[in-house]
Amino acid sequence: MLQISGTNRLGIIAAVLIGLALALPNLFYSRVEQHNDAIAMIESSGETPELIEQKGLWPDWLPSGLVNLGLDLRGGAHLLAEVEVEQVYADRMDAFWPELRDALREERETIGTIRRTDTNDGTLRIRISNADQMARAMEIARGFANPVVSLTGIGHNDIEVSASGDTLIVGLSDAEKLATDDRTVQQSLEIIRRRVDEVGTREPTIQRQGTNRIIIQVPGIGSAQELKDLIGTTAKLTFHPVVNRTSDPQANPGARNILASSADPQDAGIYYILEQTPTVTGEDLADAQPSVDQNGLPAVSFRFNPSGARKFGTYTTENVGALFAIKLDEEVISAATIREPITGGSGIISGNFSTQSASELSVLLRAGALPAEMNFLQERTIGPELGQDSIDAGTIACIVAFAAVLIFMALSYGLFGIFANVALIINVGLIFGLLSLIGATLTLPGIAGIVLTIGMAVDANVLVFERIREELKTAKGPSRAISLGYEKALSAIVDANITTFITAVILFALGSGPVRGFAITLGLGIITSVFTAIFVTRLLVITWFDARRPKTIEV
Amino acid sequence: MRLKLVPSETKIDFFNRWRLWLGISAVMILVSLASFGLQGLNFGIDFIGGTTIRTESTTDIDVAVYREAIAPLELGDVSITEVFDPNFADDQHVAQLRIQTQEGAEAAASTMIADVTAALQAVDPALTVQAVESVGPEVSGELIWTATLAVVLAIAAVLVYIWMRFEWQFALGAVAALVHDVVLTIGVFSELQIRFDLAIIAALLTIVGYSLNDTVVVFDRVRENLRKYKKREFKEVLNLSINETLSRTVMTSVTTLLALFSLYFLGGDVIRGFVFAMIWGVVVGTYSSIFVASTVLLWLGVTRDWSKKEDPAGTQFGNIDA
Question: Which residues pair with A184 in a beta bridge?
């Protein structure tokens, strides 16, 4: 059985060559990285001689996939954010209120007067004066129900109507809440991606995790705080009519009004009483750019889309002389008197901006508002120096571990040890090839996984060699001993590696972040080490044996 | 001339003193459990929440000065340790601060990090912040849960796999060895109060995988020898199998330890705890696959009428190519 068929030989050699070719770009990391960046740049913004030169640093016909370096190696920031999905329920109800109000008012004859009461549980509560006509009120409200548009919500309506005493309660149904949650998180994900892209950092990872969480990893950013400033602001821009100004933070704004503080330090202690329902919102913005106001101070200019322009035009025409405020999240950033109708659909926000804050705000406004606030559950910042230190230390440890194992194997098994060493070198090449192929991210624990694999990869070879030694003792010919050695060691190799592989899979499935990186390299290492031990070393041994035909062998 | 760590033929009686070995293991397990029960693990922020800040400076670090500098911030429980590593340059002084979760803060009160940095830079202008990590209480609770689940699942999966491939006695033997290794590793972490974070869980699972690797190789040989020597006493077969695989067991442990030690000394301080867990695990795992797994198997005994059932389900890999 000391034969490997020609096709198998070719297959083994081809697999090794492909694997090594895939690993090759990693040896010229910065060169290939420039090449890849240049290609991306040319695609997005056209060719320049400089970019073509950078592109030429690496031949196009060679593979150019690289192992991504994780945050702990490159430096950068990581955030785990939870989207406060419940906030959207209240927004939905606020938007629904005018419609429902008008419908209920039409039936004033039967149900009497209506009044909305304040709640904070994301429902609409409406008191009606003729409580005995509740059934009619509920019927009207139910008339607005629509079927839920989602796979799991089929057969359910989007709103739930109930009553308690003289209060009509309208809220989102559970099915609609689920569907809304999903949309909210998707939307948040999209907006975070836009905001991060606007800043132009490379290769950010923005992923959804679980039902309402988002992982954001941005290499190269200075700190998690910077990242939080960028994505943590909801940036909900709204235009409100001003009811009054006050200096009392405890002032009662009255029904359907809200109290908002001023963001301008010159107006410290000033509070605005605003109508709760905004005239126009940031959703109607078509564009926002940093600019300067008539006094030459930094400001943000904006342009509405047609529907926003119409709403704003109508309002300003009807309310010349009135005061209106621009509110960003919870604070009024600018308040001004309407001097003349603004029908052009564009305007300028002049507040207390610096050049930087004006440009930040325009980025946020362009990317759009987050549908809900975010709560940061976990954050990590790794400085680039620490990352470089870790790469250096990891590389040295890898090389030393490698050298130690190579020497030890050669001393223990002589020529066969050298065969195992060749296989081990190929093995590490293959791990990098596979990592590049699947675009995996290498982390510090991942490097530890590779070093561990170097130590354990020889195990399969050791099992075979020890077995050949044993078979040689029973005085069979060398050819028979080699073939028996491979045959009999196989079940131990397979069982031992499958069990380790099971733990790697569990680690991958349940682990997060760095632990996953470790699981990936460990798992790939098991696959490549079994492949190299069973096929590559065997090919080497058999080729050597066929060429020499030794009468005796020593393992 | 070959380097041989184990003579080519050994006839060590591994069960001669099995009471002693099991006794040692039992005592170590008790010590581990007692240590875990009495002082508990030194959990990292992954599991209890809080913030760690890693600082670096070119001037010497005085922990007391640092402590004094941030005292006015009233952050509650703060631990400050200086980190030493042979790879550091002479003027590279690294400190690690661990701050408990702040009241009412979801992850890190970002102002808190800025305040701490400012306070420290006031006493040492050369100081820079190298890394910050913050974990909120909600996530840390989940992390403990998934970590425990991972270890339990791994052990259960292995139990099932070995049961399928061997017999239930083998599975129990292997799992006894695994539990032994996991308990002793947790024990050493609690006794030495080494920081126990998420990476250590990864190390624990690797230990599970490694220890199993060893155990399976021995068991595979036991299975083979049971068929080969149908007349011999079970204890003798076990002993023979361990002796036959001893050279391999030692070889693999040595190559793995070579790799791990180079990582321990040269891989930097960030992963040192992780590597320590693995080194300990490899040593304990090698020991347990010989002394614990096999002894448990000896106790349980096996049904040996394998001559009748040439059941391919249990031996499918054994017969490949044969």
Answer: none
How far is it, in rounded angstroms, from Cα A447 to Cα A427?
A: 14
Residue A411, CB-side half-sphere exposure with 13 Å CA sphere: 12
pLDDT at B192 over 50: yes
AA letter at B290: I
User: Is residue B9 assigned to a domain?
Assistant: no
CB contact, 8 Å: A366 with chain B?
no
Are both A387 and A492 inside the same structural domain? Answer: yes
Candidates A375, A414, A452; nearest CB to B206: A452
pLDDT tens across A4-33, in order?
778 888 999 999 999 999 999 988 888 888
Residues 212-271 of B with CB under 8 A from A: 212-214, 216-217, 220-221, 224, 244-245, 247-248, 251-252, 254-260, 262-263, 265-268, 270-271
Both B85 and B158 in a single domain?
A: no
Q: Could you tell me if B114 lies within 8 Å of chain A, comparing CB atoms?
A: yes
pLDDT tier for residue A70 given thresholds of 50, 70 and 90: confident
- Are residue B95 and residue B148 in the same domain, yes or no? no
Looking at the domain assignment, is residue A232 inside a domain? no
- The residues with which B132 forms a beta bridge, in sequence order, are A381, B53
Cβ neighbours for A218, distance < 8 A, ≥ 6 positions apart:
A76, A77, A196, A201, A204, A205, A227
Answer yes or no: are the C-beta atoms of A143 and A186 closer than 8 Å.
no
> A290 is written with which tokens?
């940093």
Phi, psi of B104, rounded to the nearest 5 degrees: 75, -5
SS3 A237: strand
Range(s) of the domain holding residue B61: 50-135
Domain boundary among B135, B170, B190: B135
Closest CA to A390 of A432, A444, A440, A452: A444
Q: What is the pLDDT of residue B322?
A: 38
A394 part of a folded domain = yes
> What is the number of structural domains in chain B?
2
Contacts of A508 in chain B (CB under 8 A): none
φ and ψ at A248, to 5 degrees? -100, 110
B240 & B252 share domain: yes
Beta strands A285-292 and A298-304, pairing class: antiparallel
Structure ipTM = 0.83
CATH number for the domain including B81?
3.30.70.260
Residue range A278-286: average pLDDT? 84
Considering the domain boundaries, does residue A530 fall inside one? Answer: yes
The beta-carbon contacts of B221-226 under 8 Å, at least 24 apart in sequence, are B221/A492, B221/B245, B222/B170, B222/B294, B222/B297, B223/B166, B223/B170, B223/B315, B223/B318, B224/A488, B224/B318, B226/B302, B226/B304, B226/B306
Same domain as B220, residue B100: no
| Mean per-residue pLDDT over chain B, rounded | 85
d(CA A488, CA B248) in angstroms, rounded, equals: 14
Q: Are B267 and A228 a contacting pair at CB < 8 A?
A: no
User: Does any CB of chain A come closer than 8 Å to the CB of residue B152?
Assistant: no
Average pLDDT score over residue span A42-63: 83
**Do residues A436 and A67 lie in contact, with contact meaning Cβ atoms separated by under 8 Å?**
yes
The span from the CA of B259 to the CA of A76, in Å, is 29
Residues 57-86 of B with CB under 8 A from A: none
d(C-alpha A540, C-alpha A13), whole Å: 11
Q: Point out the residue among A378, A495, A503 whose CB comes nearest to the CB of B165.
A: A495
Domain boundaries, position A268: 245-351
Q: Do A439 and A297 fall within a single domain? A: no
Amino acid type, A69: L
Q: How big is the CA angle at A279 (ends A277 and A283), to the nearest 5 degrees?
A: 100
Indicate whether A58 belongs to any domain. Answer: no
Is some CB atom of chain B closer than 8 A to the CB atom of A546?
no
